[in-house]
Each structure stands twice: as C-alpha cells, then as structure tokens.
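A quick aside before the break. I want you to see a complete sequence-to-structure record at least once, exactly as it would be stored in a machine-readable document. Don't worry about memorizing anything.
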Amino acid sequence: MGTRRRFRNCILTPNHDSDAAPVKVACECADFGEKGPIEEETETAQKWTFAH
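That is the input. The structure line, written in tokens, reads:
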C-alpha cells in the first residue's frame, strides 16, 4: 500500500516586530530527505527545488 498524505490549510506569517529574528527559509525533499540551503529570501530557497 502506498503512502497516505493529508494536506492541511494553514497560514504562516513572519514576525514583523522590531526585535524579531530574520526569517529564514529552507526546502526539503519529502521523497529523498535532501535539504536545500537556508536562505533569507524565499525565491532563492525555491531555486534549489528546481535544480533538485
């Protein structure tokens, strides 16, 4: 039997407080467990997914 996945609706928002840590983004492959680099820009982190 194959893997069952359940999709959920959620909203992630960054903390905009003046003392908040910078937001960092990383992508991970659910099939192979490989992880892309940790970046501060979402677009930069997403480029890894296309190269992967």
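Two observations worth writing down. The chain has one helix and no strands. The CA atoms of residues 25 and 44 lie 9 Å apart. We'll return to this after the break.
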